[in-house]
Design a protein that fits this description.
mainly alpha, about 140 residues, single chain, elongated, Four Helix Bundle (Hemerythrin (Met), subunit A), about 0% strand
């Protein structure tokens, strides 16, 4: 149980880091929307996408290998876990689409804004839902 508690601590910290990265990309997007430099936006997007593909991908794997089996062991409704897994798939698709947009030579402010906004909204809701699951898991330890 100590190991699971330690892993939950790490997942909660990662959620805080994700929210910080979201704030940073939103700030970059705001500057870009208000006439900011295209190169600055490309760099911010590159950093954000790299974070999503590495750190967040590893975080997702840990949830699926540690948190979800624990929740199943305490008979947490499978429907809730399935919803979170669906979010993981949606986030993965959104990151892929944003990566494609980023690699295009002629992307528009609207395309970038739409892609970033959609991903950010999904991530914020997802983190909120997972925080609730982490709270439930911690209470059951």
């Amino acid at each position: 149980m100590k190991e699971i508690a330690k892993r939950i601590d790490g997942m909660e910290k990662c959620h805080g880091d994700i929210l910080e990265k979201i704030d940073k990309i939103e700030n970059s997007l705001e500057k870009f929307r208000n006439g900011g430099n295209l190169q600055d936006m490309k760099l911010a997007l590159d950093v954000f996408l790299l974070y999503m593909k590495t750190t967040v991908s590893a975080h997702k794997k840990e949830e699926e290998e540690v948190l979800f089996p624990f929740l199943r062991s305490i008979d947490h409704p499978e429907k809730v876990i399935d919803g979170i897994l669906g979010d993981h798939e949606e986030i993965h698709r959104s990151v892929g689409m944003l990566d494609i947009i980023r690699k295009m030579d002629n992307w528009t402010r609207d395309e970038v804004e739409s892609g970033v906004r959609g991903l950010v909204e999904t991530l914020r809701e997802h983190v909120k839902s997972e925080d609730e699951l982490l709270k439930i898991a911690r209470e059951k330890l």
